[in-house]
Amino acid sequence: MATITIEAKPRETGKRAARAIRREGWVPCILYGHHVEPIPFQMLESKLRPLIYTTETHLVKLQLNGKTWDCILKDVEFHPVTDRPLHADFQVLRAEEKVTVTVPVQIVGTAIGVQRGGVLQIVTHELEVTCLPKDIPAHIDIDVSNLDIGDAIHVGDLQFEGLEFEDAPDQTVVVIAAPQLGGVEEEEGAEGEAEAGTGTSA
């Protein structure tokens, strides 16, 4: 898992202060964790974006108040219209304490079913796992090589050392769907309409 170092600075709390921070290109944030009093801080929006718009989970070394904190981005609040980040939560990591994180799914291999005309459908793009900080994966590789048309992989099928999956065991992660036959159905429907059109009214 890659590590990103970010320099941040303390901030004032309150709605007015938060609006002022955002106007200047900063994002109000909070750092929290077990045995740690919540610490409000601010970071440049440009520094936050690589943690949001990514296909991998990152460890963050947050430099704040003369200290460096190992943490992860836990949650982000977005503006409903502009989709800009409004607020971010960071959780402090402790080597001996498990943490629950959301990890992106990455598909590996080419499914047998796809080679036979099936369609790969990724149903779940992220999975929630609980593990020790040292075991946090950058992403979870899902090998679909042996999947045929109609086959699927569910959360309950996944086994990775050190990871406990929090999603429901019957949650579908990926499925190989049968090829679409829309063109045939449309042609048959058109023929039916043509036959109906040749009838005469009484």
Q: Could you describe the 3D structure shown?
A:
It is built from 4 helices and 14 strands. The protein is α+β, with helices and mostly antiparallel strands and 202 residues long. It has 2 domains: 3-94, Ribosomal Protein L25, Chain P, CATH 2.40.240.10; 102-180, Ribosomal protein L25, C-terminal domain (RNA Polymerase Alpha Subunit, Chain A, domain 2), CATH 2.170.120.20. The strands form 3 sheets. The protein has a 7-stranded mixed β-sheet. Strands 11-8-10-13 form a 4-stranded mixed β-sheet, with no helix packed on it. Strands 9-14-12 form a 3-stranded antiparallel β-sheet, with no helix packed on it. The radius of gyration is 24 Å and the shape is elongated. Mean pLDDT is 89; it is low at 183-190 and 198-202. Residues 6-90 form the Large ribosomal subunit protein bL25 L25 domain.
Briefly say what this structure is:
It is built from 4 helices and 14 strands. By secondary structure, the protein is of the alpha+beta class. Strand 6 (67-78) and strand 7 form a beta hairpin.
Ordered list of secondary-structure elements with their pairings:
Blueprint lengths: L2 E5 L1 E2 L4 H9 L2 E8 L2 E9 H8 L6 E6 L2 E12 L6 E8 L6 E10 L3 H4 L3 E4 L3 E6 L8 E4 L8 E3 L9 E2 L6 E6 L4 H16 L5
Parallel strand pairs: 1-5, 3-7, 8-11
Antiparallel strand pairs: 2-4, 3-4, 5-6, 6-7, 8-10, 9-14, 10-13, 12-14
